Amino acid sequence: MQQENHSVVEEFVLLGLSQARGVQLLLFVLFLVFYSLVLPANILIILTIRNDPRLGSPMYFFLANLAFLDICYCSVTPPKMLADFFSRHKTISFKGCLAQLFFLHFLGGSEISLLISMAIDRYVAICRPLQYTSVMSRPTCRAMVAGSWCVGFLHSIVQVIFIAHLPFCGPNKVDSFFCDITQIVKLACVDTYALELFMFVNSGVSILVCFILLLISYGVLLVKVRTGSSQGKSKAASTCFTHIIMVVIMFGPAIYIYCRPFMDFPFDKVMAVLHTVVFPLMNPMIYTLRNKEIKQAMWRLLSKRRALM
After folding, report:
1. Over the stretch 12-30, which tens digit does the pLDDT of each residue have?
2. Alpha helices by DSSP H, the chain
3. What CATH number labels 3-308?
4. pTM, full prediction
5. Which residues does residue 12 pair with via DSSP β-bridges, in sequence order?
């Protein structure tokens, strides 16, 4: 197709979660309350870890970065979704759509890589405790976090480049509240079978492989901690179980969305909400609720702030 046809579609129409006005208002209130409560809680996690010297281990350093990534991730689609509840014409420009695509996969890929870094940290702590301090030094941890961001960028930019060069000449309706590759690719005016296959491998297969490897690694670590001391065994096992919960929550909706053909399924919008709004903000919260040290540090920080007021 000629180049001039590539820019026929200048904007996409987002059909949203529901067309019923009453349902839209209910969803707006629910999402606004959730977003207003959980988002500051994740910011509190970051401030607590940064300001408490007792939380200087690599595990908490990675957790603070995870919370930051989740805050960024949940700032890509929810603000526009909340604004669209009061808009009659829910549209997004072609460039805005590409921006959503880029940041969703950039931050999502970075988070998956960071979860792998956290698994490596737990492996060294449990299997190589004597070398833990030297192996997991602060420069090493920073390099692992920077590497996670680089992996996420490469994963995302490749997909955006391919989509940006697709010809879109109509239709332009997206049956969702945000832009993602599973909806946008289907709107192209050319046969996208090869591109869908590539994106299935780039997103779906890579997510599934990482998920399986993480589960196997934590399973091995749980077996390993059985040979440790009673106190160390309990703490290490609790940490591993927490990480497994985080991995399942992070990967579950992503596997549902990307590990299948680019077709519409009944629970697509439900999984999209869980994947982009609910679960990312809950990940650090779940870790915090299962961690005694960080809960105590939070209370110390809050008590100190109240004393200064």
Report:
1. 999 888 888 888 899 999 8
2. 21-51, 58-73, 78-84, 94-127, 132-135, 138-164, 181-184, 193-199, 206-225, 230-258, 268-273, 279-289, 292-308
3. 1.20.1070.10
4. 0.90
5. 92
